[in-house]
Amino acid sequence: MGTRYEDQPPEHWAGAESLDPTPVWKQYALVALLLFVGLVVIVAVALTALAPQIATPPAVVFGDRLVLSAADVPAVGADARLVTTPIVDAARSFYLLQPAKGEVVAIRTTWEPRTGEPACRVTPFPQPRPAVSMFTVRDCAVFAPADPPLYFDAQGERVDARPPRALDRYLVSVSGDRVIVNLSRLIEPSERIAGPVPTGIPQPQATP
After folding, report:
1. Burial 104-142 (b: 16+ CB within 10 A, else e)
2. Whole-model pTM?
């Protein structure tokens, strides 16, 4: 035997309010709110991406990106330029240089021979430089005073291609007349494994 709607108890019946649709103005308001939120997100993303092009150098913009003028980059082979306070704090200071045309490098001013070891101070060689060396390190607590000095080239690599690891660098990009140094992207080379010294590489002479 079948069951008809009118046979159900009154307490099982749906109220009249269940037949009323959602007011149209509420639907429009919800759609308008979603569109507004989406527009705000798009504008925020666009401003974040365009910040390096809008800011007046030197300036640190969203994402810890330092915007410098291309005119701030030293000429090819010239002495490195120290970028520190008040442009950036001393803990994130670096040397800016151009080893080759169009290649811009940012070498951090501190360096740990191995992760967790006391940091050393990175210093550039003045002209004239020994061999192909550009940087050396000083005030290294893990090295004895009698240890031979360490030499690094313009890319921060060891001149003799032996341990310890290379110098730390910041990620750099060039966009038109601007140079963008990403202070949140530190390139930390891995530690090298000891091996024979390659032949044919001129060994630098220690300077007094």
Report:
1. bbbbbbbbbbeeeeebbebebbeeebbeebbbbbeebee
2. 0.71
